[in-house]
Specification:
The protein is of the alpha/beta class. The protein has a single domain, classed as P-loop containing nucleotide triphosphate hydrolases (Rossmann fold, 3-Layer(aba) Sandwich), CATH 3.40.50. About 35% of the residues lie in helices and about 25% in strands. It has helices at about 45-50, 85-90, 105-115, 125-135, 135-140, 155-165, 185-195, 210-215, 235-240, 245-250, and strands spanning about 10-15, 20-30, 35-40, 65-70, 75, 90-95, 170-175, 200-205, 220-225, 225-230. Strands 6-7-8-3-9-10 form a six-stranded mixed beta sheet, with helices on both faces. A four-stranded antiparallel beta sheet has the order 2-1-4-5, covered by helices on one side. Strand 7, helix 7 and strand 8 form a beta-alpha-beta unit. Helix 3 crosses helix 4 and helix 4 (about 125-135) crosses helix 6 (about 155-165). The structure holds adenosine-5'-triphosphate and magnesium ion. Magnesium ion binds near residues 46 and 175.
Length: about 260
């Protein structure tokens, strides 16, 4: 069966570690050009779900996916999909900024250079364009050749995002991208996510309910190893359907980290 190029979908997926199910019966079709936030208490499977979309857990012993995971028109686990190709379509941002021990410039062009070594002449423009898109250019334009390790945490996270964007992924997966940032940096990333969703599909795992209310279009709430509740963010917050969701929203998991 062929799906549309824009399709991003789980069909009856089960994910296990060493035979123990973490997520079962996952069926969900993600909205395009929208922010979908994944909520759920610690250990509910948010990171596992995100990583399964770009096959980042393949090397973990005992990790197994059953069912169908469709990304950009292809089932990614059982059709001999080219993982290198897949990673060009999907960018991943982690909780702690992932920075290489080299300059700001080398960091931002790293992925682009890897995928397009022959387009060397374009590297400087690519660096500028994506640092601008990640709202970092003005802060680093005079220190492009300086070590990226010297940037602040918030700047490092925007640099990670700029590097991911430079590969022009259609989909961005973010795992608690502002959890380790101060409020000012967190706001900067939040505004960035808002501006990115016009052109990209963003899926973000988070514990930050206040932030989710501001930026989410759709919500997936994970509970008891499955998608417990799903829907438009406004509906979800105004009229949660299930008791467990209400308890979660009122409870201690609504930290603003
Ligand atoms: N490499 C692994 N091997 C075995 N079990 C794992 C592995 N990674 C995660 N798990 C288990 O899978 C479950 C889901 O973990 P996951 O990290 O996806 O949760 P999470 O919702 O992202 O939690 P948090 O909010 O704390 O980040 C947990 O029970 C965890 O112990
Ligand atoms: Mg996690």
């Amino acid at each position: 069966m062929k799906k549309s190029e824009e399709n991003l979908e789980f069909i009856n997926v089960e994910i296990t570690y060493n035979g123990k199910p973490v997520l079962t019966g996952l069926s969900y079709n993600f909205s395009k050009s929208a922010v979908t936030c994944i909520l759920g208490s610690s250990g509910s499977g948010k990171t596992t779900l995100l990583r399964s979309l770009s096959r980042l857990n393949d090397r973990i012993r005992g990790f197994k996916v059953r069912g169908e995971v469709w990304v950009a028109g292809e089932e990614i686990y059982y059709n001999g999909v080219d993982v290198y190709h897949l990673r060009r379509k999907i960018g991943m941002i982690f909780q702690s900024p992932c920075i290489f021990p080299t300059s700001v410039y080398e960091n931002v062009i790293f992925g682009f250079k890897y995928h397009h070594p022959e387009r060397k002449k374009e590297f400087p423009q690519i660096a500028e364009r994506y640092l601008k898109e990640a709202y970092l250019w003005d802060e680093v334009k005079d220190r492009l050749q300086k070590p990226a390790q010297n940037l602040s945490q918030g700047q490092k996270q925007r640099l990670s995002i700029a590097r991911a964007l430079a590969v022009e992924p259609e989909i961005l997966l973010m795992d608690e991208p502002t959890a380790s940032l101060d409020p000012v940096s967190s706001d900067a990333i939040e505004n960035l996510i808002f501006s990115l969703k016009e052109k990209r599909t963003i899926i973000m795992a988070t514990h930050n309910i206040a932030q989710t209310r501001r930026i989410a279009d759709d919500i997936l709430f994970l509970y008891d190893g499955t998608i417990w509740e799903q829907g438009k963010a406004t509906e979800f917050f105004e009229r949660p359907q299930k008791e467990e969701t209400r308890i979660f929203l009122e409870g201690g998991s609504s930290s603003s980290s």
